[in-house]
């Protein structure tokens, strides 16, 4: 006796519509990153406002990121890795500004509460360049790391001494 192959029959499956898709047969609505399930970090629609890299808050955010690298990532490997200090802030921008009537950067900070800053900074002694996303709450003056700190330039052979500790290669010098 010849058996028929067990074929998938889509009509016999209990089909449940999902809310994550959009039909091409209907008008496509305006969507936000939130409604599309895209994290803030990867949202191309974000409108970032550039900040002067010499502002004290910008330097404070970069310094907080460096302290996190030194005290969290490298703490257990102090005998292998150098301690970083801030060389310069290359770029700083903030997202999630509410509409305000003021065009001044400082007034914008005072009229809003929490801002997502992206700070690009260079450190000594390695001249490594890092990018950090930080939540800053102006009224309470609290700083919280929003995501991992990323090294965005090549580290090459500067981390040869710890090549067996892959997770530290971009940080250790």
Explain how this protein is built:
With 173 residues, the protein is an alpha+beta fold. It has a domain at 49-168: Nuclear Transport Factor 2, Chain: A (Roll), CATH 3.10.450.10. 17% of the residues lie in helices and 23% in strands. The protein contains three helices and six strands, in the order H-E-H-E-H-E-E-E-E. It has helices at residues 33-36, 56-73, 105-111; strands at residues 49-50, 85-95, 114-124, 129-137, 142-145, 150-151. Strands 1, 2, 3, 4, 5 and 6 form a six-stranded antiparallel beta sheet that branches. A hairpin with a 4-residue loop joins strand 3 and strand 4 (129-137). The chain is extended and about 65 Å long. Mean pLDDT is 80; it is low at 97-104.
Key terms for this structure?
173 residues; alpha+beta; Nuclear Transport Factor 2, Chain: A; six-stranded antiparallel sheet
């Amino acid at each position: 006796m010849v058996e028929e192959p067990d074929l998938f029959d889509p009509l016999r499956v209990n089909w449940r519509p999902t809310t994550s898709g959009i039909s091409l047969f209907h008008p496509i609505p305006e969507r936000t990153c939130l409604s599309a399930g895209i994290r803030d970090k990867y949202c191309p629609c974000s409108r970032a406002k550039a900040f002067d890299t010499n502002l004290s808050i910008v330097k404070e955010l970069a310094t907080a990121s460096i302290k996190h690298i030194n005290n969290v990532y490298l703490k257990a490997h102090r005998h292998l890795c150098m301690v970083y200090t801030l060389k310069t802030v290359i770029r700083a921008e903030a997202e999630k500004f509410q509409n305000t009537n003021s065009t001044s950067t400082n007034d914008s900070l005072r009229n809003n509460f929490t801002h997502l800053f992206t700070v690009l900074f260079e450190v000594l002694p390695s001249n490594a360049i890092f990018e950090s996303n930080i939540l800053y709450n102006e009224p309470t003056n609290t700083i919280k790391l929003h995501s991992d700190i990323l090294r965005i330039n090549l580290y090459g052979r500067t981390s040869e001494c710890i090549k067996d500790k892959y997770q530290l290669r971009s940080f250790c010098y």
